[in-house]
Amino acid sequence: MIFYLRHTTIENLQSLCYGQSEMPLADSYLQELDHIAEELSKLNIEQVFSSPSKRCLRLAHDLFPQKQVCVDDRLRELNFGRWEQKPWGEIAKDQIDVWASNFVHQSPPGGESFESLVNRLQDFHEEHRQQSVSLAVSHGGVLRAVHCLKHRRGLEKAFDHTCKYGSIIGYESDLSSEVQ
């Protein structure tokens, strides 16, 4: 069984497209940490994995200071390429529209498609799902992918699901699915 945890709230006053870029945590971090720790205390987490992103690593280490945190690149957020660190309002609307109309297969300029994220997530999940009760600290894109695959919803429905900061999704079965 793997539990996927989205990192806590970030500080993003400029409404930046950030994806894999490092972002500062919001002032609410400690309150969110306490809430997540309480939720996870009900589980018997044996192994902890994290995206290499600082916002995920800090959370993983703060939640489980006594455990080794295994960093895995497959848990990274979607790579938005040349859009990273640009305010959404400064990205050409026609470029966003092209990407949004087929984000499953279409990459932002210099970035990766959602299909690519799903493929690396499935790799990670298959490698670790039967080892022990694990926690994977990751990002909204990864949790949206898990949600779609778990509920056998088409990947094009990924943004129909609200994925709050600090949310947790547990999943035991395989995440194989036809990418549509």
TrEMBL record:
GO terms for biological process: negative regulation of glycolytic process; regulation of pentose-phosphate shunt. SUPFAM superfamilies: Phosphoglycerate mutase-like. It comes from the Bacteria. Coiled coil: none annotated. GO terms for cellular component: cytosol. Keywords: Hydrolase. GO terms for molecular function: fructose-2,6-bisphosphate 2-phosphatase activity. This is Alpha-ribazole phosphatase.
